[in-house]
Amino acid sequence: MTWFEKLALVVGMVLFMECFAWATHKYVMHGWGWGWHRSHHEPHEGAFEKNDLYAVTFAVFVVGLFTAGMWWEPLWWAALGITIYGGIYAFVHDMMVHQRFGMRWVPRRGYSKRLLQAHRLHHAVKGKEGGVSFGFLFAPNPTKLKRKLSQRVDP
Ligand SMILES: [Zn+2]
Ligand SMILES: [Zn+2]
Predict the structure, then answer these.
(1) pLDDT tens, 23-78?
(2) How far apart are the CA of 6 and the centre of ligand 2, in A?
(3) Strand, helix or coil at 116?
(4) SS3 letters for 39-93?
(5) 115 alpha carbon, closest ligand
(6) Is the overall model pTM greater than 0.85, yes or no?
């Protein structure tokens, strides 16, 4: 593989993972996977939540992919792309938005602030249904999200 192919694969995987994470969050975690994800929408004690099992599941999958990549190189680079996405995700979602692992940085302007607001609005809905903003790295405009939330009819 040329370096360009490797780079394209890694960057492509990071972008793909955002779409994949959005779909998984919306249709699986807020669908039949709610049992694990609920812990993330409710206050809880202790450093870990059941929702972390999703991270563990992905980690196991990625280790498998790295292993398979020893026989077929593109898989290894794809696995690297997923790992990078996981790293960004852990930083943005867990550390910046939810202030886990002792991080206390609250962005006051720019895109990071928008990300924070968008995900806070995702958490404004406590239940499984009717949420907004399922992505993590592409944050929709908070004003639009708020409008969407206010238009929501409670079942
Ligand atoms: Zn959620
Ligand atoms: Zn969250």
Answers:
(1) 999 999 999 999 999 999 988 778 889 999 999 999 999 999 999 999 999 999 99
(2) 31
(3) helix
(4) HHHCCCCCCCCCCHHHHHHHHHHHHHHHHHCCCCHHHHHHHHHHHHHHHHHHHHH
(5) 2
(6) yes
The DSSP secondary structure of 117-154, one letter per residue, reads HHHHHHTTS-SSSS-----SSSPPPHHHHHHHHHHPPP
CA of 51 to the centre of ligand 2 (A): 10
- Residues 73 and 71: their CA atoms lie apart, in Å, by 6
Ligand 2 centroid to residue 110 C-alpha, Å: 20
Rounded to the nearest angstrom, the distance between the alpha carbon of 37 and the centre of ligand 1 is 7
Distance between terminal CA atoms of the chain? 53
Label residues 36-52 b or e (16+ Cβ within 10 Å = b).
bbbebbeeeeeeebebe
Instruction: Indicate the SS3 state at residue 101.
Output: coil
> Distance, CA 8 to ligand 1 centroid (Å)?
30
Percent of the chain scoring above 90 in pLDDT: 54
